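Internal tracking record. Fields below are filled automatically when a chain is submitted to the structure queue. Please do not edit lines marked as system-generated. If the sequence contains nonstandard residues, flag them in the REMARKS field before resubmitting.
Queue: standard
Priority: normal
Entity type: single polypeptide chain
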Amino acid sequence: MITADLPTTTIARHKTTLQSALRWAVRPMGWLERVPMSSVTAPTPRPGVSALNARQRSPDVVIPNADEVRHFLDVNRKDPLWALWYAGFKLGLRPSELIALGEDELVIGPSGKLMFVNIHRKAYLSRIRPKPERRIWVVEEPKRASYRTLEAPRSTLDVLRDQAVKMRRQRNKQVYKWPKRWVGWLFLRSNGGYPYDPAALPWYMTRACELAGVGDWHPSTMRHFCASQLLESGVPVIRVAGWLGHRNGIMAERTYGHVLTSVRGQEPTGAILDRILGPVASEVASDPG
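SYSTEM-GENERATED OUTPUT FOLLOWS
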């Protein structure tokens, strides 16, 4: 795969899957004495970087500012996917997680009001085609770290609740029945009652960006915006990683390192050390001996 110059992220996913399978073969099955891939090295996964260029710098992450996002949302208020865009910027979910949001994932807290959003499933269209004309919908639980419950902002909960009411009204207006499998889901197409394809969201977002006159954003832009706003507000990296569904803070530090270096109110690392040990050096420099 490295020789074929495949993306580093693709290689990393294949390596992780193979290692998991081979560890299972060693223990508990006992088919192998050791994991043969333990000595195999692969390039560090970097979005947009191929294997033979693994040492180059990753492409800069596009992160819009708050004014641009407000303008985007204001201009696209009549967009059928407006609630999805709003939730994406506020919750920082992956496209497959956004599409899978449903009424059953809106959780009422002890106060009797909506307080939480469960991220307990994801949905996408499989590449397998049992018939040439269509693909199969796959609905499954996310990875362990991505299986989480978010104490969502009140405004986001209100938007999602209104979207649920909108879907019920839309379903009742149809002359034909929507598939029972998707009843209660929040983002369904009006021409059949099926979810939006996560892989098609870039096209919808490009259309919304053109209407708003902003840059050509990608659905991942919503996730980057959410993470950067949390980090700039002083939220610890490990908490941001948990909000995004990462196992640890490594991915957040790698992706948003430039944000961490300019966090508001944070003293630069060099300045901290200079404040602590700087006087020692100045005393030596001023000593005539």
